[in-house]
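Students often ask why we bother encoding 3D structure as a string. The short answer is that it lets us treat folding as translation between two languages. Here is a chain of 238 residues written in the first language.
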Amino acid sequence: MTMPTPASIETVGLTRRFQSGPKTITVLDQVSLTIPRGEFAAIMGPSGSGKSTLLALLAGLDRPSDGSVSIDGEAIEAMNEDRLALLRRRKIGFVFQSFHLLGNFTAVENVMLPLELLGLPSPRQRASELLARVGLGDRGHHYPTQLSGGEQQRVALARAFAPDPPVLLADEPTGNLDGVNGQIVIDLMLNLRRDHGTTLVLVTHDPTLAALADRTIRLRDGRLVDHDATATPTGASR
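And here it is in the second language, the structure alphabet:
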């Protein structure tokens, strides 16, 4: 499979408000930032600061109240649901804290799914290769309930990377794992990301993990308070 060029991400005045009875709650407030191609950006901030909301808006899983989100210069907030679904399928991988595997699909079938949706060749072979890469080459026939939490997250990681997305978004990917399994998942994710040159945006509470990023983006009360670069993007060139 030919690997795509990693994608850049830009937000301008990104704002998300919710109605709670008569009150309007602003969860994200005028966030403007640019994430260059191939960068690994960590998003940090206290609970309720808007981290997961920002990630959902970047993925097109939620719509902004104001402002814009662009992937490679293509504004996604104006897309209809069909175009958004196609963009996510082609350009964005997502790793959730709670795995989000399909319970009636085996591990290999879960990894095959995005490949089949895109009509890509040899989906079972590609899925099996990725499962082997994350140390689960002999577990492809198992269902999620037959796998540990760490194993399920490794399947989810293989699924996210299966179609070689230019962007990977990860929301607390180790939040439900113990320290050992969490480290295994992080090492695998960073190795896969480095090999693929993927643009990675990751929400985390872990300062040790954030220190591995090219840049840390800090939010507080829905506002951007810091987004200084800490290193040269490690995946910017191939």
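Translate back mentally: Helices lie at 51-58, 81-91, 107-117, 123-133, 149-161, 179-196, 207-210. Keep this in mind for the problem set.
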